[in-house]
TrEMBL record, chain A:
Keywords: Membrane, Transmembrane, Transmembrane helix. The keyword Membrane applies. The lineage of its organism: Bacteria, Bacillati, Actinomycetota, Actinomycetes, Pseudonocardiales. InterPro entries: CbtB_put. It holds the Pfam family CbtB. This is Cobalt transporter subunit (CbtB). The keyword Transmembrane applies.
Automatic annotation (TrEMBL), chain B:
Keywords: Membrane, Transmembrane, Transmembrane helix. It comes from the Bacteria. Signal peptide: none annotated. The keyword Methyltransferase does not apply. The lineage of its organism: Bacteria, Bacillati, Actinomycetota, Actinomycetes, Pseudonocardiales. InterPro entries: CbtA_put. This is Membrane protein, predicted cobalt tansporter CbtA. It holds the Pfam family CbtA. The chain crosses the membrane at residues 22-44, 93-114, 126-145, 165-188, 195-216, 236-257. Residues 59-81 are annotated as: Disordered.
Amino acid sequence: MTHAVAIPTPVSIPVRQILPYAVFAGIISLIVLYFVGAEQGALAVFEGTTVHEFVHDARHLLGFPCH
Amino acid sequence: MPLTETESTPAATAATLTVRSLLVWGLLAGLVGGLLAFGFAYAFGEPAVERAISIEETGTGHAHAGEQPAEHSHGEAEEEEVVSRAFQSTGGLGIGAVAYGLGLGELFSLAFAFAYGRVGSLSPRATALAVAGLGYLAVVLVPFLTYPANPPAVGNPDTIGQRTALFFGMIVISLALLVTAIAAARALAPKLGGWWSTVAAGLGYAVLVTVVAKLLPGFQEVPDGFPGDLIWQFRVASLGTSAVLWTGIGLTFAALLHRGLTKGRTV
Ligand SMILES: [Zn+2]
């Protein structure tokens, strides 16, 4: 402990301001999670098994049903 | 605006955050969390995965792409090795873990954007850790306890669609119940006080997810003779991988947040 740093009081971010980011970044992020977690398993956007095989071990160890 | 680090008036320390900086920190936190999760999964998870695949190759269980296409009781055409096991357990695991970390980091930062300044008297850093802890509980632990992770060689291919839908469904239900519980705790706080409203909401969440988990169909697809200690080893490694990921995201994000806020400017 050296000196006290002033911890700022949290000011909530208006929901209106979050929503556009939430929709945009949220959808992209969910697509990424889908590709690691489920693509070419129960569902498939692309044909074949390359994506599945590529992320196979991560999918298992992150707890997703794999095959 | 000459706001310096020594500025200490309430106006200067009332920190306003932009969603954009939160998303950048989320991405960085996801990168760190993903790399740490990769390290953990490689050290503690891969031995179990390799053991499960060698059991699968020598007999029971169904065919699994990426294995030696030699001796299948599968009846289908020989599977080509699209991605080698050596790559799956190293580069593939790393890329999968980091990609997942980046996506999760972004979603985490969005959840934090909603939580920041809305959860009672928690400091910004404590808010970040609370989001990570509750996220791990609702998105990882509860779905895991309902539908535990399985190593290769476990799982009937005929039910993959059903199992995937139910697993994702459980994540959605658990998360929805968590958000409901938080809203309920906030609504009850004026009447019951912070402590009892939180206890009531927590118990409500626990009871409801338990009922849901009990009502949803279960799957017992571990092949006869499959070693129980291997299932255990794999599942502990799986929970640990996610714990490392979420802890890495929470702590890294908290550090970046704190650094940003204590610069004493709008970030
Ligand atoms: Zn698999």
